[in-house]
Amino acid sequence: MSKQDDIQAVQELNEAYRVITDQLARVIVGQRLVIEELLTAMFARGHCLLVGVPGLAKTLLIRTLAEALSLEFRRIQFTPDLMPSDITGAEVIEEDRRSGKREFRFIEGPIFGNVILADEINRTPPKTQAALLEAMQEGQVTAAGRRHELARPFFVLATQNPIEHEGTYPLPEAQLDRFMFNTYVDYPDEDEECDIVRRTTADAAVAVEPILTGEKMLALQRIVRRAPAAEHVVRFAARLVRLTRPDGKGEVKSAGERASKDAAAFVRDYVNWGAGPRASQFLILGAKARAVLHGQFHATEDDVRAIALPVLRHRIVTNFNAEAEGIKPDDVVRRLLEEN
Description:
This protein is α/β, with parallel strands linked by helices.
């Protein structure tokens, strides 16, 4: 594609982003930042974990977003008795009535969709949680030794309740790392809550008009990948990630200068494990997607800063000192952003 084609595609994606947010606003009150993070992750081909208390319209938001993008929506309610085959599908024996021969046939599970809502993902055992790993990372599932490709585009949007931990199975770090963003869904403010009450207690149904198709979204995802990120932006993202590690390996060369060889003292005091290289990749991909969604033609340090919290918060493991003093991973990230 020519440079003019790329410019036109960026403008088209920016216009699509504006129209999609306007359509979602017809159903969803507020949550502008959550919507932006969801769309940023989706156009960067990433998956998203939404954390919030019940009743904040997480399921409604995801379903409405799928409708606006003309994508097939599938919901999986995770429960303690859910088995991996309940998600991926299974092979069954089927008899041909004419020949009398029996053969195996694969029946697809609910994972075979475009937008997969993994509702309350921490309520199912690790064996079933792990069934999502191959799908999220490879875009396929394996059953009886055979690989089955998933539809494209493919997104896993999982929800998690942060206040109820009895009978839950916390996601292992390996699976958390597969999610590009960990997005917090907060309470609405007073005006927004009043608007929610008015809308949901009236006899009025609001329809969402489809904006994009799956094929168009795949094309726009390729535009995001082609957006440039200057060397200093890549260095900034890598340095930010490396400074989350308390092992003294935060050294990164930048503009001819050498950053501090040791992570900041507060990182060593409060962090057990920092973010890995996948965080650096997601920072740049997310920065590119955010830039293009806002009509920019290249990623900047400001774009990296804007998505640092959702990318890093679930990749930083704090220690007992942090827990005792009420210091969260968000506090660590904010401190690093202030000092860099």
